[in-house]
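Field reference: sequence -> structure
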Amino acid sequence: MQHPSVLNLPISSANDEHAQAPAPTPQAPTTTASTPEELAVQLRREGKSYAAIMAATGLPERKVKLLVKDVPKEIATPLNKSVSRVYELAIRAQGVKDYELRSILHEEYGCKWNTVEGRYESSFDSSVIRRVKEKVRERSTSNGTQPVFVMDWVDDQAPTASRLLLEQSALSLMTRVDEAVNEFMELHAVCASEDSEDADLAQRKQAYAARQHILKLVSGLGTEPTATLLERTTKVTNALQGTPDYEAPSVRGIEEKRQIPEPTRADHFLDFVESQGWLAATN
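Structure field:
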């Protein structure tokens, strides 16, 4: 029984003939302001200072203050500052990469130390990223610009070619996965000697589950860590096999993890010695 892959990707697209063409030269951001006065008002709404507005428009300070007197200045919150910074990158010809967006959020929102994992974690989550993108799109609509949010893997000089190569690689991998699933079903199909609707359903479910298990093990993108998945499945199969004492892959439990202090960046060795309590023991 053949079990076709669930991944269906287009072999080509309308832009394939331009795959090797270099990306267009970045251009200066466009604006809906047709006069220096309108630009001054627009910049003030974006939170720009008088000095920045004067430099951008060439207008004298007295004129600028008069124009923007009743224009509310954007409050300098982490969200607003992030939106302004991301917007400037997103309207470029090459758009803004995911890592650039996240770097800005790291700088504006900061991070916190995880004492369990022993690493810094971002103080923002996916909802913040979504809000920033929404506000950037809203600002672009008002300004008549087009924001582009780009995946990190895209080659700026050959975006289509880079996409096609990854798609072809994915197809090749899925072909190999299909071969592995078919081989698995030939050797381990349930109800192999039966010819019924129930047996057919059980085999289709088994093939689907086998494919998902392979993908989870390879990608590590399942809902549980790969080590936990291996431990759980090993226990189940050992119990069914009648060998419950067979050693399963070891997974360190959360209860075994010690609190890891945030580094002071002064002397990591002394930090470690102090965290072990060795200094106190010698006194």
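Note: Confidence is low (pLDDT under 50) at residues 9-30.
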